[in-house]
Amino acid sequence: MRSHPNPPLAAKIERIIYELSLNLMKIFDSKHPKTLEELFGDILFSGQMTKSDRYRLRTAILRNSLTEEHQDIINRLIYSTKRGRLRMMD
Fold this sequence. Notes:
By secondary structure, the chain is mainly α. The protein has one domain (7-18, 35-88). The protein is built from four helices and two strands; from the N terminus they run ααβααβ. It has helices at 7-21, 36-46, 51-62, 68-82; strands at 48-49, 87-88. The chain has a two-stranded parallel ribbon with strand order 1-2. α1 packs across α3 (51-62) and α2 packs parallel to α4. The protein is globular and about 30 Å long. Residues 22-30 have low confidence and may be disordered.
Protein backbone atom coordinates (compact mmCIF):
# COMPACT_ATOMS: atom_id res chain seq x y z
CA MET A 1 0.00 0.00 0.00
CA ARG A 2 1.06 3.57 -0.57
CA SER A 3 2.21 5.88 2.19
CA HIS A 4 -0.74 7.85 3.52
CA PRO A 5 -0.38 11.67 3.54
CA ASN A 6 -2.70 12.08 6.55
CA PRO A 7 -1.14 10.37 9.61
CA PRO A 8 -4.17 10.88 11.95
CA LEU A 9 -6.51 9.26 9.44
CA ALA A 10 -4.03 6.46 8.82
CA ALA A 11 -3.83 5.86 12.59
CA LYS A 12 -7.63 5.77 12.82
CA ILE A 13 -7.83 3.26 9.97
CA GLU A 14 -5.12 1.11 11.57
CA ARG A 15 -7.04 1.18 14.88
CA ILE A 16 -10.21 0.08 13.11
CA ILE A 17 -8.36 -2.71 11.35
CA TYR A 18 -6.81 -3.85 14.65
CA GLU A 19 -10.22 -3.94 16.35
CA LEU A 20 -11.55 -6.03 13.51
CA SER A 21 -8.81 -8.58 13.90
CA LEU A 22 -10.04 -9.36 17.41
CA ASN A 23 -13.20 -10.95 16.02
CA LEU A 24 -12.02 -12.73 12.88
CA MET A 25 -14.02 -15.88 13.43
CA LYS A 26 -17.31 -13.97 13.19
CA ILE A 27 -16.59 -13.37 9.54
CA PHE A 28 -16.65 -16.95 8.38
CA ASP A 29 -20.04 -18.02 9.58
CA SER A 30 -22.84 -18.79 7.14
CA LYS A 31 -24.42 -15.36 7.63
CA HIS A 32 -21.79 -13.68 5.43
CA PRO A 33 -21.76 -15.43 2.04
CA LYS A 34 -20.92 -12.29 -0.01
CA THR A 35 -17.88 -12.13 -2.24
CA LEU A 36 -15.47 -9.24 -1.79
CA GLU A 37 -16.74 -7.67 -5.00
CA GLU A 38 -20.32 -7.70 -3.67
CA LEU A 39 -19.11 -6.28 -0.36
CA PHE A 40 -17.26 -3.44 -2.09
CA GLY A 41 -20.31 -2.67 -4.22
CA ASP A 42 -22.64 -2.60 -1.21
CA ILE A 43 -20.28 -0.31 0.73
CA LEU A 44 -19.77 2.13 -2.13
CA PHE A 45 -23.47 2.15 -3.05
CA SER A 46 -24.70 2.77 0.51
CA GLY A 47 -21.95 5.20 1.46
CA GLN A 48 -21.39 3.48 4.78
CA MET A 49 -19.31 0.65 6.16
CA THR A 50 -20.68 -1.48 8.99
CA LYS A 51 -18.65 -3.24 11.65
CA SER A 52 -19.33 -6.52 9.88
CA ASP A 53 -17.99 -5.09 6.61
CA ARG A 54 -14.83 -3.98 8.38
CA TYR A 55 -14.40 -7.47 9.87
CA ARG A 56 -14.57 -9.05 6.44
CA LEU A 57 -12.08 -6.59 4.95
CA ARG A 58 -9.69 -7.10 7.84
CA THR A 59 -9.85 -10.85 7.42
CA ALA A 60 -9.13 -10.61 3.71
CA ILE A 61 -6.16 -8.34 4.39
CA LEU A 62 -4.74 -10.60 7.10
CA ARG A 63 -5.04 -13.68 4.94
CA ASN A 64 -3.06 -11.99 2.16
CA SER A 65 -5.75 -13.15 -0.23
CA LEU A 66 -6.17 -9.81 -2.01
CA THR A 67 -5.53 -9.32 -5.67
CA GLU A 68 -4.12 -6.04 -6.90
CA GLU A 69 -7.66 -5.08 -7.95
CA HIS A 70 -8.95 -5.73 -4.42
CA GLN A 71 -6.11 -3.66 -2.96
CA ASP A 72 -7.03 -0.78 -5.26
CA ILE A 73 -10.66 -0.97 -4.18
CA ILE A 74 -9.66 -0.91 -0.51
CA ASN A 75 -7.54 2.15 -1.26
CA ARG A 76 -10.63 3.76 -2.81
CA LEU A 77 -12.64 2.97 0.31
CA ILE A 78 -9.95 4.61 2.45
CA TYR A 79 -9.89 7.64 0.14
CA SER A 80 -13.69 7.88 0.26
CA THR A 81 -13.54 7.84 4.05
CA LYS A 82 -10.95 10.60 4.04
CA ARG A 83 -13.09 12.74 1.73
CA GLY A 84 -16.22 12.20 3.83
CA ARG A 85 -18.09 10.18 1.21
CA LEU A 86 -18.02 7.01 3.28
CA ARG A 87 -19.13 6.76 6.89
CA MET A 88 -18.09 4.18 9.44
CA MET A 89 -21.10 2.73 11.26
CA ASP A 90 -21.00 0.87 14.58
